[in-house]
Amino acid sequence: MNAGMHEDLVLYWIRVAPLLVAPIAPHFAEHLYQSVLGLPGSVQNARWPTPDKQVDRTLVEAASYMRGVTKMMRDAEASLLKMLSRNKGKGPITFDPKKPKSVRIYVATEFPEWQNQCVDIVKQAHGTNGDKVDDSKVKDLLIEKGLIKDKRAMPFIQMFKVGITIVVQEKST
Fold this sequence. Notes:
Elements: H1 7-21, H2 26-36, H3 57-87, H4 113-125, E1 126-129, E2 132-133, H5 135-145, H6 153-172
Antiparallel strand pairs: 1-2
Helix pairs in contact: 1-2, 4-5, 4-6
């Protein structure tokens, strides 16, 4: 796919670039601002751009998750390279760092059933005492639904509670 650059993004960058370099190279920023962009006034009096819509938290969270996954893959590759250098000729290793690598990422559109039950449990236990999740009620509901022995349930609920705490803190600030 050879789509090229996104025109709106390039134009946005061209408009913002003089503002970014103004503290470091004021003469060059002024030249870009007045001569290249043809904007009136001085870059020194220009306002920083303001976003036209609110930040989408879902995209921010997805990007953060993908950064973590990318780091995990790079760390795994580095670990394989270390193992390869230590193993020199001692046994078969199928990893060839010179070959191109690819990754296929699948994105689920909904939670599995056990996670849906965990989300429902957190919803039921949330709000009984302010903006916190009642841990004893979570435990009782896990026992009631038969998820208390599922080793995946509590780590998922803990992660989910952290997400709720972040959202509540953002709304209160």
